[in-house]
Design a protein that fits this description.
Layout: H1 2-9, H2 11-14, H3 31-46, H4 50-53, H5 56-63, H6 76-90, E1 94-99, E2 102-107
Antiparallel strand pairs: 1-2
Helix pairs in contact: 3-5, 3-6
Length: 108
């Protein structure tokens, strides 16, 4: 009971220190939708279920320009398959187009 009393009487001294949250810029209009189209195209080409590459939270974070290590789509095989292209798309180095019912990717 002494430990509980000590913690409740001075919570700041006993609370874990959390890293300061990074302020993220606003999401560009249409960025999540473009990333979803890219993800679908990449996953179809690789014959992998899209959510194994990137989930909705990953898409949102990428669209805001985040690059943290906790984004699975920016590590390992997911990065090689999708993450690098997603970053290129968001930085204007990759373009999407539709041709004959298929998504085409163009390096700029």
């Amino acid at each position: 009971m002494d430990a509980v009393y000590a913690a409740t009487s001075d919570p700041a001294a006993h609370a874990p220190k959390l890293p300061k949250r990074q302020h993220n810029p606003e999401m560009p209009a249409g960025a999540p939708e473009m990333l979803k189209v890219l993800l679908k195209a990449v996953s179809d080409e690789a014959n992998v279920v899209p959510r194994l590459i990137a989930n909705a939270a990953d898409i949102e974070k990428l669209a805001r320009g985040e690059t943290s290590d906790d984004i699975a789509a920016l590590t390992g095989w997911r990065y090689e398959l999708f993450g690098r292209k997603a970053q290129s798309l968001l930085s204007g180095k990759l373009a999407l187009s539709f041709e004959d019912g298929h998504v085409r990717l163009f390096e700029l």
